[in-house]
């Protein structure tokens, strides 16, 4: 997605060979025009799959997931990383380790919102080692629903996440694939390259 790649070039900050900071337009401050375009792109890439729900993890995935759900005309659910006083019964949980934050969270959703037979599209901001995607796929399966797709805003293709998610058999679509962050420079995967 060219608009996203250009935004990464213009505003992204390479913090190390493995960390890209995009907090000016994705995961702290959000660019609403870009989020709308991201939602439209995901809706196009996953159309015709009978998607009934969109699922993400709080908080950085909420913007792109909500815009995707809006385009598809379906509800969006986000898995919580923190315990809620109002979310106590009928929980589905999975354990997820964040590569960027180097912390482990137990993520939860209520069984009321994803049910047997739902076709669920998972959306997240980054794909690094794939733990968030795997945790969300696990939650969908625990609910008796079908994980039919994983949509990623920015994939760090030089890490294991792509392979990890592909091995689940769930369709994976990434809008910007980064080949390298070495020497402080973003290098994108060439469109013709196979993964």
UniProtKB/TrEMBL annotation:
Glycosyltransferase recorded as keyword: yes
Subcellular location per the Swiss-Prot or TrEMBL entry: Cytoplasm
Record's catalysed reaction(s): XMP + diphosphate = xanthine + 5-phospho-alpha-D-ribose 1-diphosphate
Top-level taxon of the source organism: Bacteria
Domain Phosphoribosyltransferase: 49-157
EC number(s) recorded for this UniProt protein: 2.4.2.22
Top-level enzyme category: transferase
Pathway(s) it belongs to: Purine metabolism; XMP biosynthesis via salvage pathway; XMP from xanthine: step 1/1
Gene Ontology biological process terms from the UniProt entry: purine ribonucleoside salvage; xanthine metabolic process; XMP salvage
A single GO cellular-component term on record: cytoplasm
Pfam families: Pribosyltran
Sites where the protein binds xanthine: 20, 27, 156
Keywords: Cytoplasm, Glycosyltransferase, Purine salvage, Transferase
GO molecular function, one term: xanthine phosphoribosyltransferase activity
Binding site for 5-phospho-alpha-D-ribose 1-diphosphate: 128-132
Complexes and interactors: Homodimer.
HAMAP family the record matches: XPRTase
Role description: Converts the preformed base xanthine, a product of nucleic acid breakdown, to xanthosine 5'-monophosphate (XMP), so it can be reused for RNA or DNA synthesis.
PANTHER family noted in UniProt: HYPOXANTHINE/GUANINE PHOSPHORIBOSYLTRANSFERASE, XANTHINE PHOSPHORIBOSYLTRANSFERASE
Family from the record: Belongs to the purine/pyrimidine phosphoribosyltransferase family. Xpt subfamily.
UniProt-recorded name of the protein: Xanthine phosphoribosyltransferase
Organism name: Peribacillus faecalis
Protein's gene: xpt
């Amino acid at each position: 997605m060219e608009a996203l790649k250009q935004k990464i070039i213009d505003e992204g900050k390479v913090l190390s060979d493995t960390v890209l900071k995009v907090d000016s337009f994705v995961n702290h401050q959000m660019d609403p025009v870009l989020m709308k375009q991201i939602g439209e792109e995901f809706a196009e890439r996953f159309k015709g799959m009978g998607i009934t729900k969109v699922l993400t993890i709080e908080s950085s995935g909420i913007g792109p997931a909500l815009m995707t759900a809006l385009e598809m005309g379906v509800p969006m659910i986000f898995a919580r990383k923190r315990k809620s006083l109002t979310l106590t019964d009928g929980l589905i949980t999975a354990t997820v380790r964040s590569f960027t934050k180097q912390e482990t969270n137990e993520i939860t959703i209520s069984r009321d919102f994803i049910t047997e037979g739902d076709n669920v599209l998972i959306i997240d901001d980054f794909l690094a080692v794939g733990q968030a995607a795997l945790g969300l796929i696990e939650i969908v399966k625990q609910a008796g629903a079908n994980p039919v797709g994983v949509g990623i805003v920015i994939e760090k293709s030089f890490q294991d996440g792509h392979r990890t998610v592909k091995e689940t058999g769930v369709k994976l679509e990434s809008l910007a694939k980064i080949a390298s962050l070495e020497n402080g420079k973003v290098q994108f995967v060439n469109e013709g390259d196979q993964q």
